[in-house]
Structure prediction request, 590 residues.
Amino acid sequence: MNGWLSPGAAEALALSLKVSVWATLASLPVGVLCAVALARWRFPGRQVLNLLVHLPLVLPPVVTGYLLLVSFGTRGPVGAALAEIGVVFAFRWTGAALAAAIMAFPLMVRAIRLSLDAVDPGLEAAAATLGASRPWVFATVTLPLILPGVLTGAVLAFAKAMGEFGATITFVSNIPGETQTLPTAIYAFLQVPGAEGDALVLVSLSVAVAMAALMLSEWLSGRVASWVAGR
Amino acid sequence: MSLSVRLAHRAGDFTLDAAFRAPAGVTVLFGRSGSGKTTIVNAVAGLMRPDAGRVAMGDRVLLDTARGLCLPPHRRGMGTVFQDGRLFPHLTVRQNLGYGRWFAGGSAGTGTGRVVEMLGLGPLLDRRPGALSGGEKQRVAIGRALLARPRMILADEPLSSLDEARKAEILPYFERLRDEGVVPILYVSHAPAEVARLATTVVALDRGRVVAQGSAADVLGDASVAPAGVRGLGALLEARVLRHHDDGLTELDAGGLALFLPRVALSPGRVIRVRIAAQEVILSRDPPSGLSALNILPGHVQAIRAGDGPGVLVTVDTRAGRVLARVTRRSAERLGLTVGRPCHAIVKTLAIAPQDVGA
Prediction:
């Protein structure tokens, strides 16, 4: 790696990107489904789902991380079952991705839901009278029209995942090369006397990545919005 | 194949209780806003489930609440043209046109050429809906509905968001659809001129009930039915184009009586419909002389109907057909008009607007 980036810092950056990309991509379909369910469907338990989705936003991250550890840990009910089929979250980078995804989920769902509310139901009705069944209406009309919101939600989730600290460190600890992301690495450097320089490099990286993500999102959603608006 | 509709629905303090048949041609649901027209169209399209009712297209049942049957909109084959167009903003005109055809199982190009040519959509194909005018949008919406190969076209006030010039641009396309017998059309309107030009059958609605149904001439000429208010009343005459005169007038033959209209762009021999608004008709007991009006239709008083206001509605039976005249009660008394008396209906040529004349 470059001279100014210590191997540890480079590793943390690469891991952070990997964790955040996976967290975003894997939760996106679930996020769209949740947003559709909350915005459009009427079913018993809708309020409960709404509460669950938003819980990570208001719970202390340490609590979320602890709950993840209890349920997805190797001895937790979910973790033990998943371990049978070879999927392990505890103290792995996959666990960091899970923690980041759950913490970022409310932001993602809210962004998608806002764009769903803005879709004219009349367009969906028109598609139905033209012969499109409900799944087809969703795929050919609703989904393209909410694309700007989906992108915004994805970028927000990515940025949130890049910065996730509390739940991650509680759930998967801070293992260099496996679960040490940018924020936990910064925290680790700050605990060591004389490592402020390394911490500063990572802080600058965090700022740069966050700014880049925001700019990309602005540009993308601008492009997509004008495409969707039919101009 | 005809559409039969029987619906009962309550929403708040609005009650719909209507039954009618829509045979081939254009059936116009005619009534003021709040009369239940759009509710009926939505129930036929499958976008709304009524409390009770039955809707069938020929022997294909689309809705039968008694049997718990309610086909979803995509299986009804009711190509709908909405008031606001509802083109898909993220698709080009070409893709919008192809949308329904694709679900109908048509391969690219099936019938598209004919529809594109008929509606004049060629120059628009690669544009996006955002770059179309209101009239262009409605033309695309009509094409899109047609290409879905519907069993029927539902048109819910397709012209009401357009100005007069755009209306005049779109109406001929519906006339063409009617005359070529492409597909039956259920057309919602509150504009008497549209009804007069388009309707094969008129179903007049008032507060959720059918108050009259029948041919356009019968319903529009019926003084007891005024779904658009007394100012919207007017009779419908059928006339054949005789010749065009050099001074900008067109002479027509209406049951042996001459009728002069501002120039109509149709060749001699064509039969057209002319709506004569009741407001514009003057009555005279004796054959008038020294009068500027060109159209004088002799006949007999068939009915006189008085309302609450100062006006009465006089139905005059002439050889050209029934003509409605809205005159003051005072004039009617002064002329001594009673049923059976001869009288003359007088119509200024220039009082017949182009939108009152249809092919």
